[in-house]
Amino acid sequence: MSDETIFSVYWFYKVTPEYRRLEARDRARLCDGFANAVETHSDGLTLRGAYSLVGLRHDADFLLWLHGPSLNAAQDMAVAVRKTGLGAYLETAFTYTGMVSPSRYAPEHAPAFIKGEPPRGYLSVYPFTKTHAWYQLPFERRRALMAAHGVLGQAHSALVEGRVATTEATGYAGGAVATAVVAPATQPRGSVLANTVHSFGLGDQEFVVAFESDDPAALERMVEDLRAAEVRLYTACDTPIFLCRRKSLRGVLDDLA
Fold this sequence. Notes:
Blueprint lengths: L6 E9 L1 H4 L3 H17 L5 E7 L9 E7 L2 H12 L7 E10 L22 E9 L1 H5 L2 H16 L11 E4 L7 E4 L12 E6 L8 E7 L2 H11 L8 E3 L4 E6 L1 H6 L3
Antiparallel strand pairs: 1-3, 1-4, 2-3, 2-11, 5-9, 5-10, 5-11, 6-7, 8-9
């Protein structure tokens, strides 16, 4: 992974009722202006995808997911799209900001979008925060719990991800320490891409989690299985959860009518 800092932003918008009352030609003109602003104000940003949430969430209609090395560029684009004609009919429902950071527990792990994996058809994204008690656990205990969590996730992953050796102490006052090594899978067994970015100090959440798959049922099965991990005991918040369908930008805007 490059030493360059990469930011990842998730902008959820909701269209106002007034927009849907406009004539079709007026809506088309506004959508053209909005799409042009996104396409021409990139300034080093990559649009991972535009996603429709119509019929999937009641409080957001579409998502733009972008990433790049400059948070200034991301904010400038947010301003640019808000100044478009369509921007006057949009409410910002949710905004999440994160950055790519090496995992403390599995340094080889990185978001799929950093590894060059193409986006998938469906996205499940949500903010995530751990409890204070989690950070009071000894590091080796946390690493062991995350390794167990990783084993559950690997069964659903579209990528092969090795796991570093982990140690789990059976006692922290002079007790014995047992070491467990989790071998990497020889080939992918699932269809889900994982994209987790750090958000400490950048928002209310500590992480932003984004899972991708062409099969929404695969997303459901993986998240359900991960609920059985012991590390789940240290989850403070992992909602709201947004299920999003990836389309062309123009296709997403057409859904707003």
